[in-house]
Amino acid sequence: MEISGALEIFASRGVELVEHFHRLHLEGHDRNEIAKRTGLGESWVGSVLALGKVLFGPAEASVLRERSIATAQRNLLGIEVLRAINAAVRSLSKHAEVGREELRLELYDWAEGRSVAEVKAHATSRVRELNGNEHTPWRRSVRISATADAGGQRHLHLSLADTHMANVESSLHRQARRLRRKDGALSHSQAMADAAFSLLTSDHNKEEGKRGAMVIVPLTGARHVGSGMLATTDGAQIHFSKLADAILRDQGIALCYGENAETGAPEPVGILPIEPIHDNSGRFANNTQRLVAQADQVLCAHPECHRRAINCEMHHVQAASKSGESSQENLVAVCATHHARNDDDPTKPKNGRYEREPHTGRVGHKPLGSDEIITNDLPPTQNSGRVIANRMFEEFRHHKEWQSLAKRRIQQLITSSTR
């Protein structure tokens, strides 16, 4: 197909494109797969799938919907026009005098021959008119880009009601003008950014405590038997803190890993100077477990997610409703978006589950209908505690001198600790 032909499909056959993407989704392909397959962005694909659900999913106002589809096809509306209209219609209040499908039909009819910008402006204005001031649904939100762009910058998008944002804008403008009087080299946009940063990171908003270094310590020469205790092959035991203290002193926080006594997979044993890793009888993860999970994973457990584990929710692999414990190995960090899609009940599969890979202990996503656990292997995870521990224990298993040295060292420490 010629390039011009492909562009014409985007510009005039939006309904057919939406139906195609909807069909892919019904065949079991999720947003990430479709994005990879088509070379399109995930957020763009997500918006088209949402539109597909509206146009081709179950609907009460099916007659209106069929008329809307026919109108869009007759008027040769492109995919971007349909997306712009859907974004506006979704903001229509349930108290408005016109229903969503009625408004969609009205806008599809109006959009004939008009540009995306014109349609977007008109649809937004029409929804605001119908909502009025009393029933405007304020959907406050903050979105922060998960990764830095090529220039090393991340981006923040704040959504507030018009009047609230006007107050924020006015305050930032005032502070920006003061900053520019002090430094004439600043552009107004730069000064606005500096003012926002100063406001958000002021002492009043800072959490107590400072960030410190965390060192990953592979405790070789013994295996973890639980409660922070390490055992050698001859049965002698030593607490992880004594061994770690002999290896590492005054270097910040130390997260210690040992090989599980049954599976041999590396697992967190304890964290210094806090406490050993132990089961938690409560429903929710405690602060120690959160800290360990953040270092253990670095990122969300989903294979293609860039969100940092420190900003994630703590998920029970075996759901608490299914008698799952709040133990470290049953807790994984998953962002709110992917957490909501997890199948808590494995007997009712829909989207897949987050589970641990038995040989490495790494957490990953088990897709629907698959036995494979796919881990997040994005670059930041290569510096996660679990990946480092697996790498070092694998090297240890093939290094005879290291094994001999570790065994002698741990025996010496056990002997000295029992005197």
TrEMBL record:
<dbReference type="InterPro" id="IPR003615">
    <property type="entry name" value="HNH_nuc"/>
</dbReference>
<feature type="domain" description="HNH nuclease">
    <location>
        <begin position="287"/>
        <end position="340"/>
    </location>
</feature>
<protein>
    <recommendedName>
        <fullName>HNH nuclease domain-containing protein</fullName>
    </recommendedName>
</protein>
<feature type="compositionally biased region" description="Basic and acidic residues">
    <location>
        <begin position="340"/>
        <end position="360"/>
    </location>
</feature>
<feature type="region of interest" description="Disordered">
    <location>
        <begin position="338"/>
        <end position="384"/>
    </location>
</feature>
